[in-house]
Amino acid sequence: MTADTPNESPDRQDPAQAASAPVAVIGGGSIGIAFAIVFARAGRPVRLQEPDETRRAAVPGLVAGKLADLAAYDLLDEPVDAVAARIAVVGDLAAAVAGVAYVQECAPERLDLKTALFAELDRLAPPGAVLASASSAITASSFAAGLAGRDRVLVVHPGNPPFLIPVAEVVPAPFTRPDVVAAAQAILSQAGLSPVLVHKEVEGFVFNRLQGALLREAYCLVRDGVASVEDIDTIVRDGLGLRWSVIGPFETVDLNTQGGIASHAEKMGPAYARMGAERGQNDPWTPDLVATVAAERRALLPLDRWGERVAWRDRRLMSLVRHRRSENPT
């Protein structure tokens, strides 16, 4: 692959060119490899930059192994070799970002490292390129506020691995340009991901705050002798997780209660408030908050279609249960 000259693009991306331009993935760890597969599977040329020579040598074999697994489950539309051929593994940062439309940084979760790395990316990448970090908790404001090109920096935090879990949190800083956010969403969507815009910078964003809330309670239940590690995993895997793989927590309680989510909040809100108080948490479901949530749910699902949606949920769960039984026959 012939590298173009860095910084040759205009300050704004041309949508047609951006749709076919190569992308750069910075870091050859598990998330970097996964992102490279996401973009290559969608037809994009990818330059995966990894500074460590030993790791760099290992990347092609790791990519090939994951692609072979995807092919075995009919999750590739092309032969493994065709997808792998789109991924060029390089050591030089400038060569990786030359002429790209989008940079996905996947370096370790260290503020000092990301600060230094984004200073280099801002200097080397074309002015029109989006600079995205796969940070799990560190905000773009923390590492990019001092950059001349800070208005093209944002966080794109994936589920792991993104070639199987398509959700990607798009988290702009207050200084990120709206057209950069739109360009990132378009590139992610074209790659088969499901971008979700996070409206405010908060540590951990949405994914890890939700996951963290469950983990905090799980640790407390083990500490207090309420349940074992295995039992908690069983409850999530065969209960909450099974249901949440079809619908999210708001729709879950909406469909669990006749009258919908407002009825659920009235019946269960006091008990959840007491559970939170046990952990020193005081975040009541106020009438205004419940009304806001209920209004959003009713816009998505009018109550006259509630029974229809419950039946849909049950059929989806039946499909999952059937699949589990076929994969693990007793």
UniProtKB/TrEMBL annotation:
Transmembrane parts of this sequence: 20-40
Coiled-coil annotated spans: none
Source organism, top-level taxon: Bacteria
Domain 3-hydroxyacyl-CoA dehydrogenase C-terminal, chain residue ranges per copy: 204-271
Residue ranges occupied by any 3-hydroxyacyl-CoA dehydrogenase NAD binding domain in the UniProt entry: 23-201
Classification via InterPro entries: 3-OHacyl-CoA_DH_CS, 3-OHacyl-CoA_DH_NAD-bd, 3HC_DH_C, 6-PGluconate_DH-like_C_sf, 6PGD_dom2, NAD(P)-bd_dom_sf
UniProt keywords, alphabetically: Membrane, Oxidoreductase, Transmembrane, Transmembrane helix
Gene Ontology biological process terms, A to Z: fatty acid metabolic process
A GO MF term: NAD+ binding
NCBIfam families in UniProt: PRK06129.1 (NF004783)
Protein name per its UniProtKB record: 3-hydroxyacyl-CoA dehydrogenase
Upper taxonomic lineage: Bacteria, Pseudomonadati, Pseudomonadota, Alphaproteobacteria, Hyphomicrobiales
